[in-house]
């Protein structure tokens, strides 16, 4: 039976956390010491390539154990690494080429650049099908409007990341492409039947599962015919019944950020992590607030001690996290080689994409994830009143 210390370590490993600034903070140090499984970077954490690798190295040395460092480097509007790195077109531009070869080359390019500065995991590719022109969150982040195109190019881009030793994470299961609401701000609901999901939304995820993608990210969306009460992130019918049993996925299931208002406005963090674990989640993103991450870890500990979450569920999640870490988490780099970053070869790949498509398709647009900083500030303001 695990000791109290073992239980705390196993609970902490379920979380990837964020931090502020370009150096290791006290808040991050405490969470790393507690045993968190991962750290996520945002634009607030990055500068030039040499600065980025200095920070990732510092975190890995502080941990002194396998720990994966992750980011969203999709391309287009959602790309954390910009200054000094190869500028990436949106996935819509890759889709417009119709070329799986180019998609794989772009994935390999991204993988080489993020790996060079110390990242182990990329929350990409987006596997959502862009079926709703009014969608405020997916749009140009998707490869396109047909599940066949998204399947082929999504699998190819993931393979490119894998070729560089970077763990891919397909998102947002079981499909965020047809929503009209932004889950950073509200909880979307979709009435789609399982038959419709199988024809459209699920096809790219099924293709990724067959290709053995190592991780998938959940959508904070209620899929009403599957579970009319809980969003996919907390739904056993969606994660265990559909993804684990029917689709036979045994990789790591990761949540989207549990601080997004789709979740945080409706559920306390304690309920979120307990229901999520029992639904089939292995790993949670808690990207902005250290106190919330500590509360989430404590909630897992209490749930296991009370039997609300079984030790078997906790052990299974830890097994999947450990397998992912063993495969992708690299130690701090003793020798740093940044020569691939913004290299002529990489710029030539992007030029091949851009000259193949209408310039309008390559427009970067705005980053829908940047709104979380405003959400965090507003939440902190309400808490202070």
Q: How many domains make up the coordinates?
A: 1
Strand content: 5-15%
CATH class, please?
Answer: Alpha Beta
What does the largest sheet look like?
8 strands, parallel, barrel
The CATH architecture would be: Alpha-Beta Barrel
Number of strands: 12
Radius of gyration: 19 Å
**In CATH, what is the homologous superfamily?**
Glycoside hydrolase, family 3, N-terminal domain
Given helix and strand content, the structural type is alpha/beta
Mean pLDDT across the residues is: 93
Physical arrangement of strands within the biggest beta sheet: 1-2-3-6-7-9-11-12
Catalogue the unreliable spans: none
Question: What descriptive keywords fit this protein?
Answer:
alpha/beta; TIM Barrel; 385 residues; two-stranded antiparallel sheet; 15 helices
